[in-house]
Every structure is written in structure tokens, then in C-alpha cells.
């Protein structure tokens, strides 16, 4: 349902009405959001000449995305590189951390992003679609193959936390594999 349909429904119901100035602001916000989404889709489709286009992506609050600042992302990424000690790294619902890892260590080839937001398919074979509702619906070749896992479950609900934990168990190589949980 688009904003004009919502407005029309609101006008039919005398109890619901927004001032025209508020409606103009809302229309502008939704137009900007639509333009941004179209540009992001275009960049993903074109590949943007192999530059990291994800830097221009904005958070999608409907996906419960609240990204870390560059400073925080860089600190976590450096710690992950140190703790992984050359091992395989999984970034579970942490696109800003994954982006920092790639920025700090561009040749890093042993790091994967598990993410619901398909805009990050830009990372091609390093992107793995991940839906916490199906915690182990992942490529079997990745099972038990990670030495360090960074996870920030998208929701604080018990269900989401438990399912994220199931994914961590699925991905970790051994009991010695380290996990960094962020919230």
C-alpha cells in the first residue's frame, strides 16, 4: 500500500488525519527512501567496478539494522583478525564488521558474511544468505568450518538469541572456536 492510499483511507476516516505539512514531509521521506533503494539496487546489479559499494548502503530499520560506527567496526575487526589467528571468520548479522574486515585487510579470503539483507550479495561467494528463523539452513560445506564467529542477533527476543546460538554451533569448527557476541 502506497502513501497516497493510506492518506486517502485516512481522509475517509474523520478520526485519522495528518496536517498537510506533515504529509509533505512523509512523502518526501518516502521518496528519498525509494530513490536510495533504487540507487543501491543499481549499484549491486552493475557491480560498481569492484569498489565496495556497501559503504553507501543505509541501515534498514525494518530489518533491525543498526550498524556500528567505523571506529567501532574497525576495533572489532582488528580484534577478530588477532583472535582468529589466520583462521576462518564468520560474520553473522554483522555487515559493518565484515565491511571493516575487508577494508582493513583487502586480501582477506577466509571471511564470510551471513546476512539476511540481499544487498550484500555484492560480496558474491563471501555472502551467504542467512535467516535466523532457519538457523541451520546454510550450505553444508560451511558446517563446522569456522574458527572465529562474530554474531549480533538482529533481535533481542529469546527466540532469536537461541536460534543465533544454533547457527554458531553449526558453524564452529570445534569447542576451541571462539565466538564474539555483540548486542
Summarize the structure.
The chain is α/β, with parallel strands linked by helices and 183 residues long. The protein has helices at residues 3-12, 20-46, 70-84, 95-104, 158-171; strands at residues 89-92, 111-115, 127-129, 148-151, 178-181.
Question: How would you describe this structure to a colleague?
Answer:
The chain is built from five helices and five strands, in the order αααβαβββαβ. It has a five-stranded parallel beta sheet with strand order 3-2-1-4-5, with helices on both faces. 42% of the residues lie in helices and 11% in strands. By secondary structure, it is of the alpha/beta class. Helix 5 (158-171) links the parallel strand 4 and strand 5. Helix 3 (70-84) packs across helix 4. The chain is elongated. The protein has two domains: 3-51; 63-181, Rossmann fold. The two termini are 33 Å apart.
Amino acid at each position: 500500500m502506497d502513501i497516497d492510499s493510506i492518506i486517502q483511507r485516512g481522509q475517509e476516516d474523520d478520526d485519522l488525519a495528518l496536517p498537510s505539512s506533515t504529509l509533505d514531509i512523509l512523502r518526501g521521506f518516502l521518496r528519498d527512501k525509494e530513490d536510495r533503494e533504487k540507487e543501491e539496487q543499481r549499484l549491486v546489479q552493475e557491480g560498481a567496478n569492484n569498489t565496495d559499494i556497501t559503504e553507501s548502503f543505509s541501515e534498514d530499520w525494518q530489518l533491525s539494522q543498526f550498524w556500528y560506527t567505523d571506529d567501532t567496526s574497525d576495533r572489532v575487526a582488528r580484534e577478530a583478525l588477532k583472535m582468529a589467528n589466520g583462521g576462518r571468520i564468520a560474520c553473522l548479522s554483522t555487515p559493518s564488521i565484515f565491511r571493516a574486515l575487508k577494508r582493513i585487510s583487502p586480501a582477506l579470503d577466509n571471511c564470510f558474511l551471513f546476512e539476511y539483507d540481499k544487498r550484500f550479495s555484492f560480496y558474491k561467494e563471501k555472502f551467504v544468505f542467512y535467516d535466523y528463523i532457519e538457523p541451520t539452513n546454510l550450505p553444508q560445506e560451511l558446517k563446522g568450518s569456522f574458527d572465529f564467529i562474530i554474531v549480533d542477533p538482529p533481535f533481542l527476543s529469546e527466540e532469536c538469541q537461541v536460534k543465533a546460538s544454533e547457527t554458531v554451533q553449526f558453524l564452529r569448527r570445534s569447542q576451541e572456536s571462539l565466538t564474539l557476541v555483540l548486542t
